[in-house]
Amino acid sequence: MDALPFITALSPQGEFQLPFQPGATLRDILIAGGLGLRSACAGNAVCGQCQVRVQESATIPVTSGEKRRLSPARLNAGWRLACQITPQIPLHISIKTLAPAQHWRALRDDEYSFIRQPPALRPNVMRYGVAVDLGTTHIRLTLWDVRAGKRLAGRIGINPQASYGADILSRLTEAARSGQVADAIAVLATTAIAEALRDMASALEINLHDIGEVVIVGNTAMMSLLSGKNTALLLNPDYWTQCFSIQPDDPALLNKAWALSEQARIRFITPLGGFIGSDLLAGIIATRLTEQPAGSLLIDFGTNSEMALWDGKRLRLTATAGGPAFEGCGISCGMSAEAGAIYRLSSGHDQTFKLGVLGKAKAKGLCGSGLVDAVAWLRHQGKLDKLGRYPERANEGFVLSESGGRIVLKAADIDVFQRAKASIGAGVCWLCEQAELAVSDLDRVYACGAFGGLLDVSNAQAIGLLPPVPVEKVQLEANSALAGCEELLLSAEAERLVAAVLAVAELYNMGEDSAFENLFVENLYLQAMQT
Fold first, then answer.
1. Measuring CA to CA, how many Å separate 322 from each of 114, 263, 449, 468?
2. DSSP state of 408
3. Which residues contact 421 (CB under 8 A, 6 or more apart)?
4. What is the pLDDT of residues 167-179, one digit of tens each?
5. Residue 145 sits in which domain range?
6. pTM of structure
7. E strands along 168-225, which residues?
């Protein structure tokens, strides 16, 4: 696969290199890279605000819209409208003024999972619809023209409820303290989604009242905290395999908060049960897991990691507390997969290594896929033993980069990762035992979640994060939950798709089985998963 060309952008925030697929406008490339330009016309060359200076301007034809908005002298000096340029070659640009920083950024093309069944056109519904994947760490949304079956925009942002704890149980415990705290947590997510809806609608010049439906999937706790319904039940182990309502008592309050019409339908997709949320249900639908061969496994990596194993007749489901390490949080040098994140670490010469940094910016931290690569490389080089200890530098940790600030992977970070990895490994082994399958009997694996699209499968297998199936039988799905949610938004057969999964689903609570603890300890070792 050929390397993507880059836009080299000098901005008030520094210099960035942004990869792009030919076909997108320069404006969209910059927004997806986190460099929001001032704009008030949705990219129609009317406002003239998205001006950038392009070194290669003389090689790019000037559009009629640019001639109307820019003087001949300014065009001769290389100033252009970013919304009017569709780069085909690498460009070098200067940005004088950025839009005020926003909580949300546009989803990149590589962050969408493939929708396997093209939606049937629905001409008799309200024109627009929204799909929402409500995660513990991130919230992802897409805006669709439902009648045409066309995705118009996508956004990703941090779930602000993290201020009440990085993990699920912390937030649930906080919400249980008082109704006032529970309301405050709900308002954080409600307000964040409202901001994202406004952002997309404004960019596309769409009236929010023209949105006819919002479909929401997510892990059970986040759905419950948003709706304010039955959060206390999730703190009671008796309900950890039970299905209960997370539908808000008064959905009209969300219609008002999100500036939607009273007729707009807000649909919370009911979780499968306990901590096994409707995000896993959506992922199962998106991957068509129950149509795959027996021994097909789906792992949705996240703060709350969920798993589904199809044995040919039954769909066995469970969840485990992976923690936020997979999403670049919870470690001292961690960050999400944004510009400046180390997402790849590979061998150089003589025990040296090379770093891959998103956006070709200076390294600022380590995201989930980079953490997997770093641990695998340290193990391969003998700089880290299988117990997760640094034989040579136990106190300092390992220095990954000093170019943009010192980035050190500490012993405590390795411990956080080991526990997250052990939860996944133990869950896989435990589900296989329930299905009377050996790990070596697995036919294929779908690796889903925040770092699914960037994961190095061989490295993940070497340290026991993924089962040792042939690499070509591991399919990376960055946003399967969002893709499944989009199908539930677009499909006239949404209820049938959900019912088909529920008919073969069997939920398990691993916490009720003492064998899980032994499997957890066995999977703490940084080595290939035992078969």
1. 25, 39, 12, 20
2. E
3. 463, 464, 465, 523, 524, 526
4. 788 888 888 878 8
5. 109-278
6. 0.77
7. 211-218
